[in-house]
Structure formats: C-alpha cells, structure tokens
Amino acid sequence: MRVFVTGATGFVGCAVVRELIDAGHKVLGLARSDAAAASIAAAGADVHRGSLEDPESLRSAAAAADGVIHTAFIHDFSNYAPAAEKDRRAIETLGAALAGSERPLVVTSGTLLLQRQGPLATAQAAAMASRGVRVSVLRLPPSVHGDGDHGFVPALIKLAREKGDSAYVGDGLNRWPAVHRLDAAHLYRLVLEKGSAGASYHAIGDEGVPFQDIAGVIGRRLHVPVVSKSSEQAAHHFGWLAHFVDVDCPASSKLTEEKLEWQPKQPGIIADLERGTYFEPEQTTHAAPSYR
C-alpha cells in the first residue's frame, strides 16, 4: 500500500513511517522544509512538499495514495483555536480527496479532552464515512513517551529544574494514561490496514498513572523535593501546564485490543522515566507538548 503520512518527521509521525516501511508499505511523507524533506528521504520514504495550510498539496498527495495517516498538527498552544481549525480543514481536504474510494484515512485525536473534542471528531468522521471514506480516529493519551519525547513530561522535568522541586496538585492521585510511541505507531498501521469506517481507537499503554508517581520519579532523578501544590498555587507554579496537571483522565484500550489484536509491548511511562534518558539535557529543550 502507498501511504501518505502528514507529520512524517514528528515524534510520532517518524515512528509511523518506520513502522509502515518495515511492514512493506511505501510511504509518501509531507515535508514543509528542506530539513524535513531530507529527514523523510533518509528514512526511506518519498517526499511530498507542502503543508497543512496548502490544501492543494494535501489533495494531490491523498488522491495519489492508497491510504492516508494524518499525524500533523500546528502546536501553537497560545493560539489553539486557529490551530484546531486548520487541522479540521486539513482533514476535510484529505477526506474530500478520498471520497467515494473506500480508501482508509486515519486521523489523530486525544483522550485528554475527550468530552469536549470527542463528539466533534466522531461527527467529522461519521460525515466522511458517509461519503465513502474509510475514516478512523486514533486517540492518543496526554503522555506519548519514548526517546526524543518533547511533550508534557519533558516540560515537567524542565520546570522542576527551574523551580527546584517536582510538584503535583493536591493528593496527586489524578491519573494520566500513557503510551510508548512505538506501540502507538504499530496501532496506526493496524488501524490503516483493518480499521472500520467511523470507528475510534484508543492507543493506551498505561491506563492511568497517578500524577504523584510521575512527579516522584522526576524529583528522585533530579535530587529535588517532591511537593504538593494547592489549586491556587498550581497556576503560579506550573504556568500553562496548570490547565492539565490536575486533570484525572484515565482511559482504556480494551476494545481496541479486542478489535485489532493490538497489544502494547514497550515499557510503561514510569519504567521509561527510570531509564534516565529523559534527564539528559537534549530531552528537555522544548516548552510545549508535541506528539505529532
């Protein structure tokens, strides 16, 4: 199968490209820069120049592909609404290019704000499925981890270094689901190959790790105190992360595992943190989460 992948150089996207190639698929990766094009070519994929803001580039690549995996997202959390709207329009463009073909389109969503975003993603997928697109939604948890991660956990490590302590909110028992990026990449391939039109799938390795446990590993590794913050203190301490760190958002992939015979095999987030690579300087240079 010839698969068009957006976000092909991202943290998750590059793992998806490798998973597809290793399984015998041919990959066409979206590149918006010379550096991205070189990275995609080095991975053994073909390069398609364009961006999420160039609908013609998306349309032409999707039309020439046997299937599409959409992992790209503009991670500007200071302007989230416009970024989300660009993502919505990109998905509509991809879906229109595949309409009437029953070719698969895998789009990315999340479990963190499922009650808010889930119905919108489901409605969009249902609309495209009715137009003859085999569209499926793959939902990622807030923590997608592994070497090269520059999402929430590295941001917490950076913050702990700056503040001199590793904090959680209240009793710290609020739960975060997580998945290793290689397990997520494998699920993307399974959804592409076997996913049902209009269906949603959860990429969940850890169903819900207490936030206090994550803060505990960070504190021990950095040799800083592990402390509790009140809700009032959290806004000052965590900054933009305060919107997320006290959310209790457990999730399960039980149905996904049953339907697609997917089984996470990589280390969980605590074991991954304990390996120590997260605490090397290059792991904590980014300030905003970016899974895709």
SSE map:
Layout: E1 2-6, H1 13-22, E2 26-31, H2 34-42, E3 46-49, H3 55-63, E4 67-70, H4 80-98, E5 104-110, H5 114-129, E6 134-140, E7 143-145, H6 152-163, E8 166-169, E9 175-180, H7 181-194, E10 200-202, E11 206-210, H8 211-222, E12 226-229, H9 231-238, H10 254-260, H11 269-274
Parallel strand pairs: 1-2, 1-4, 2-3, 4-5, 5-6, 6-10, 7-9, 8-12
Antiparallel strand pairs: 9-11
Distance between the termini: 22 Å
Strand content: 15-25%
- Gyration radius (Cα, Å) is 19 Å
Q: What general form does the structure show?
A: globular
By secondary-structure content and strand pairing, the structural class works out as alpha/beta
Strand order within the widest sheet?
3-2-1-4-5-6-10
Mean pLDDT score, rounded? 90
Biggest pleated-sheet summary:
7 strands, parallel
Could you spell the SSE succession in H and E letters? EHEHEHEHEHEEHEEHEEHEHHH
Question: Helical segment tally?
Answer: 11
Low-confidence stretches: 284-292
Number of strands: 12
- The percentage helix is 40-55%
Could you explain the architecture of this structure?
The protein is α/β, with parallel strands linked by helices and 292 residues long. Helices cover 42% and strands 20% of the residues. The protein is built from 11 helices and 12 strands. The strands form 3 sheets. Strands 3-2-1-4-5-6-10 form a 7-stranded parallel sheet, sandwiched between helices. A 3-stranded mixed sheet has the order 7-9-11. Strands 8-12 form a two-stranded parallel ribbon. α1 packs across α7.
